[in-house]
Amino acid sequence: MMISPFKEGTYTALITPFHDGAIDLDGLKKNIEFQIESGITGILPLGTTGETPTLLSSEKEKVLKASLEVAAGKVPVMVGTGHYSTTETCHQTKMAEELGADGALIVTPYYNKPTQSGILKHFEAVTQCTQIPIIVYNIQGRTGVNIETSTLCALAEFPQIVGVKEASGNISQIGDVVDRIRQKRPDFQVYSGDDALTLPAMALGASGVISVASNLYPTEIGELVRAALRGDFEQARQLHYKYLSLFKALFLESNPAPVKYAMKSLGMAAGECRLPLCSELSESTQRALKAAIAQLA
Question: 161-166 and 134-138: which strand pairing?
Fold first, then answer.
């Protein structure tokens, strides 16, 4: 059985800050230091929130090296390595392993819409080219394909696949995943991929969250998760409703544009988004974000 560094808790899906079009490595390091000082469980560079599809391979390497340098074994580093090409996914995952990443988050191949059989074979191929733990990332809204629970159960037969980031938005499916897989793999981690669904997912037995909101409020999102883990759902519910307006506002437009706007408003390193994402938010989204942040001040 593979020993995984990824346990219950809160993992931050890091933004990639830019300055004048280039990656702001100093800003990235400061953001990660803030996360570690705030007691975050772990960090995720190069995910969706990190605008990874817009990064060159050389830039991805710089981001990962900087992340590992700051994390320095204090928190585990889960790195996004998924691609719509199985060959490229293997290449990126091997690179992450060689650089010292603790594990990989691998999204379902997007755009080419594989069958369930294709999904299974894709992940099987990745397990054969690398030794690090793998978290499966299910997000139909971005990939066009849902990983059915029966397919995920088959993937959980691979010891190297140690968990799933469930961003399907389907709370019934999340419950099925927890119920069916945990019976055979008690160590299999099920993370909410949606901040607004963290509480209901954890009430069903999920392990925590891979969070966008924790870029802004890592201590507070961590408190929500810790309360749910110890069964204090009264406190968890209070925190859920306290931050719910923020959770909603962060996804009024394509992630990570809203969270970058919010981070800039709080004086954090963020910068603009890279095209094709637009940094200019609508006035209504700006108002919603300002109101949510003011409410938390």
Answer: parallel
CA distance 187 to 190: 10
Structural domain including 133 reads: 9-235
Integer Cα distance of 175 and 131 in angstroms: 29
What CATH number does the domain containing 84 carry? 3.20.20.70
The answer on pLDDT for 297 being more than 90 is no
Question: How confident is residue 279, by pLDDT bands cut at 50, 70 and 90?
Answer: confident
- List strand residue ranges (DSSP E) for the chain, in order: 9-13, 18-19, 22-23, 42-44, 78-80, 103-107, 134-138, 161-166, 189-192, 208-211
Q: What is the DSSP letter of 78?
A: E
82 located within any domain = yes
CA–CA separation, 32 vs 29, rounded Å? 5
Six-digit token string for 96: 């992450």
**278 domain residue, yes or no:** no
In a domain, 288, yes or no: no
Instruction: Report how many domains make up the chain.
Output: 1
Angle, CA of 60, 70 and 57, to the nearest 5°: 5
- Please identify every residue annotated as catalytic: 137, 165
Helices 233-249 and 257-265 sit at what angle, rounded to 10 degrees? 100
Q: Model's pTM, two decimal places?
A: 0.96
- % of the chain with per-residue pLDDT over 90: 96
